[in-house]
Amino acid sequence: MFGTFQNRTLGIVGALRYPYRQGGFIPTTSISLGDRSMITSASPENATAESRTLPNKIVIVGGGFGGLYAAIRLTSLFWPKGKLPQITLIDKSDRFTFKPLLYELLNNTATEEEVAPPFSQLLAPYPVRFIQAQVSGVEEMSSGGPEGNGKVQLSDGGCVEYDWLVMAMGSQADSRGIPGVKELAVPFNVYEDAVKARTALQRIEAAGNPSSQIMIVGAGYAGVELATVVSERMKGKARVQLVTSDSDILDGCPEGQRIAASRSLAALGVEIITGCKVQRLESSTADPSSLPTSCSAQLQTADGSTISYNVDLLLWTAGSSPATREGRKGLPFPVSSRGQIEIEPTLRIRGNQRAFALGDVSRSDTDAHDDQSSPSVLPATAQVAFQQADYVAWNLWASINGRALLPFRYQHLGSMMSLGSINAAVALPVPLPLPLKTSLLNSPLGPLLEASGIKLGGNDPENGVTLEGPLAAVIRRAAYLYRQPTNEQRLNVATSWIQQALIAVGTAPASK
């Protein structure tokens, strides 16, 4: 699940008077691999005595929620005179992907500028240099001192030097080694995936085949959200199936969301196939009438039998892995068997005083948690990356300025999921004692709560209050508006949503 409400981790703001920098904006520098003037060669002669007098170079690898938000947060801190670092953000894409809104691209309730704004646009008001490049490796600082700059190696042979490093590459789709999945399935993890899925849906619509079939594999948050959005868009023009190896959808998720999702899927006519695993995918493009995304999916049932389905599109949400997994042998850091970088509670990489890691590529066995609200293992969600970005920014500032580092504390703020253009389910970790729940339900407020889509859970925080329906959809949108990375982007998104609302009620002409 990608969602979050707001970041309350800045209790460290009040406790430590989080040092924000005041002042004007410095334009960002954005370069691509074609511009070599700001990328050094791999030659060791570049490290000179003069470098000791230059600003600290902070390089952030990965422009997802963790990396981008950490870069922006760093610029807002108060840096003593002469200590403002040179911040560089590296990402293989030229666009930031606001993952929770990817679904809105499929049902045309959000524009590409809202879901995937260019880094050059987002970083324009900030003193952050952006480089679009594929990272191929990392070299540690040779001595740990100012003369021994580390290097981030780029795929074309160039490199970017750093004094301080942040690894924040996020996750990638994982085919789990199942034959045909990598070649034939369409993942749903980044902007490019959403564009490919949308194009495939347009082809299915254009074909007008009443027997068209779309399969979504994986019934976690992403799979359920995809199934509802796709089914809503197709409006009965294609059979939509949701496949899971579990006995039910949303395994391990709050009960209120599971009930709301089941109700929505049933209303939209989505066929749920439980207890089945994908064995292999085979191409079916030999059929002249098939689409480029057509394939044959072979599923294994719980009793060991095999079922085969011919589908026009298979969307894969059944697995993801850290983006560092494939290249973990080339990293100079301790990594887990899954390829996650081992970190200390302060998010600093184990054994390295000048490197940090956060988000999906990081792992710690000694995370400091809030006993009331934190799970024993941090989920791979944007909510975690949001919160870790603040800690990484502070701990970088503290490291450079001789202040104490803070151990990361995760605060679970609930979860949100889309169930269609005007439908959602929001789970709040608010425990209700049984007497209070019974009293509320039996009071005059009971019918009003039910009509408003507010479901009361129990004393377990994981099954607290659930909001469902249009009210939840509004709250979800408002939360994601607040969570946009910059004020400028918030204004752009808010303006777009207001225009869409006016168009929907017929008080403004649709833009061309």
UniProtKB/TrEMBL annotation:
Alphabetical keyword list: FAD, Flavoprotein, Oxidoreductase
A Gene Ontology biological process term: aerobic electron transport chain
Instruction: Return the Pfam families for the record.
Output: Pyr_redox_2
Q: Which SUPFAM superfamilies match?
A: FAD/NAD(P)-binding domain
- Give the CC-aspect GO terms: chloroplast
Keyword Chaperone found:
no
Question: Which cofactors are named for this entry?
Answer: FAD
Can you name one GO molecular function term for this protein? NAD(P)H dehydrogenase (quinone) activity
Tagged with keyword Transmembrane: no
Domain (FAD/NAD(P)-binding): residue spans on this chain: 57-389
For this entry, the protein name equals: FAD/NAD(P)-binding domain-containing protein
Upper classification of the source organism reads: Eukaryota, Viridiplantae, Chlorophyta, core chlorophytes, Chlorophyceae
